[in-house]
Amino acid sequence: MAKQFSLAYLTVLGCPPDEMIEIAARTGYDFVSLRPIYMGLPGEPNYSLADNKELMQKTKRALSDTGIKLLDIELARIYDGVDPKRYLPSMEAAAELGGRHVLSSIWTDDRNFAVERFAELCDLAKPLGLTVELEFVPIASVSTLAGVLDVLHTVKRDNAGVMLDMHHFHRSGDKVEDLDAIPREWFRFFHLCDAPVEIPTAKEEMTRILREARLYVGEGGIDIASVVNRIPEIPYSIELPNTKRSQELGYEEFARRCLESAKAYFEKHPRTNQESLSTNKKKLIEV
Q1: What HEC string does 211-258 produce?
Q2: What confidence tens digit (pLDDT) does each residue in 1-25 have?
Q3: Containing H/E element for 167?
Q4: Of 28, 99, 105, 109, which residue is least crowded by CB atoms under 10 Å?
Q5: For the whole prediction, is pTM greater than 0.70?
Q6: Distance of CA 18 to the CA centre of its chain
């Protein structure tokens, strides 16, 4: 199966969705991963498609004209006091545009609240034909693979899954062998990037790299192939925020180099049959 790639919003942070789609088409991506959920961060543009009908039409036209598909939208955060219904308009817009998934993460230490609200988010997304992928983030409340699996096993929603980010997986200290026990259908797309192999001890430095200094695939020290070989072949959303490079090169050239480096890495590290071996081993254990 040919690898498919999506251009993630953080890679071209600040780029309007219609322009992002056109850049993705010109540089060879298959999908885009948009952020139509306004988060209110300092200096963040508001690209809410549900509230901006003109932008929605531009986005729809760009998808139609280029043939690029919408992979997912972000970010449906679960935080103290959140009402998941606030995400419904954005999810409806995503469904209208042919989107497949909604990315979520948990930023509250109240486990019961998090589980209830995440389950509600899944229930809101299901009639729209959307799945909800839970991502663990080193600086969030749910910061490890075990934390995500705890939530997924508790909510028991068939449209819920796990979204691995290569940076976050490496920083969490989780082991690739842990991926073997996860139901294969829970994997639907993957955040691809690289970073220095040394894990920062200071949260500030962890956050800086996470948000603005990730590296081209193969440039850092993460053993990406070992993770990719343990999971099914799914779309790779290149989430590679690097403020300095994107400003120096511009959105389009930076997006192109991100994709070229990823393809070059996979040519050097062809997929092994480890994932199929792991799956077969799991089936034997179940029998």
Answers
A1: HHECECCCCCCCCHHHHHCCCCCCCEEECCCEHHHHHHHCHHHHHHHH
A2: 789 999 999 999 999 999 999 999 9
A3: helix 166-172
A4: 109
A5: yes
A6: 19
Cα 60 to chain centroid, rounded: 21
On whether the CB atoms of residues 33 and 6 are closer than 8 A, the answer is yes
Contacts 24+ apart (CB under 8 A), 139-142: 139/203, 139/206, 139/207, 139/210, 140/105, 140/106, 140/107, 141/106, 141/107, 141/108, 141/109, 141/114, 142/105, 142/106, 142/114
The per-residue pLDDT for 286 is 44
Measured at the CA of 250, the angle between CA 39 and CA 212, to 5 degrees, comes to 45
Structure tokens at 218: 């193969």
d(CA 186, CA 180): 12
Contacts of residue 185, defined as CB under 8 A and 6 or more positions apart, other chains included, come to 161
For 95-128, what is each residue's pLDDT tens digit?
Answer: 999 999 999 999 999 999 999 999 999 999 999 9
pLDDT for 271 equals 87
Residue 274 confidence class, pLDDT cut points 50, 70, 90:
low
From residue 229, how far is each of 156, 180, 183, 270, 278 by CA, in Å? Answer: 26, 10, 15, 9, 10
CA–CA separation, 97 and 155 (whole Å)? 27
